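Anyone able to model this chain together with zinc ion?
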Amino acid sequence: MTFRNCPTSSYSGDGQDLTKETSRKNEYADTEKLRNFLDRLQGKKFMLDCGHRVTFGFYLGNDIIIRNGKVMKIVCADCGG
Ligand SMILES: [Zn+2]
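re: yes, here you go
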């Protein structure tokens, strides 16, 4: 016979409540939200501040770096890395 410490009676939730509570207090969304936002750029082509170009969603497309600030500066990874 095996005895296990299994405190099922003290288990008071399914974990969902804690998650909701945390996200309500947290003003930062996760990267999935950002990804969904950026997905709108799929197939779009842009000239960057460094003079290079980017095509979003293209498998050989440049990576970009967004210099955050009052005015964002967007350059390719080669120029901004
Ligand atoms: Zn560049």
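The two ends are 62 Å apart (CA to CA).
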